[in-house]
């Protein structure tokens, strides 16, 4: 048991000592005539403070790169220069789809309803802004309730109106008249 524990402890300590800790700041300045290389930091606890200027007038890019590599190799720095970050993708522009008017009607167990909606697009200086309009009319045959709901934009504000009317003794024409008078009352912009 002691042998296994000793071997395990030796293996863990070997792995811990094999790790390299590198904390470096590298700076390479090239103004065309002079190449200045500065390296500050530590490698495995060993401090490095290096600064030297080379005259590189008339040298090619490849020759300048060789000088940098030789300096880094002489200092024992074999760290690859990280790749520069990639530019983000350009944002995609999506074309606004113009919604079409919608009319649907449904009947379920004595409850009849009509839902109307419409939307308009108006162009502003910068972008198109949607101005929605929706109308919901429900009539319950069993209770005789007429439910009205309107949602629309007016003067840059959103308005929502709801009204429930007892229309049990009203004919279809009278219910239509109630709907039209309510639309006039709320000053519905798009009838």
TrEMBL record:
Species: Dyadobacter psychrotolerans
Signal peptide stretch: 1-18
Ranges where the Lipoprotein-associated type-17 domain occurs: 125-165
Record-linked InterPro entries: Lipoprotein-assoc_dom (IPR007326)
Keywords, comma-separated and alphabetical: Signal
Region called Disordered, residue ranges: 78-105
Protein name as it appears in the record: Lipoprotein-associated type-17 domain-containing protein
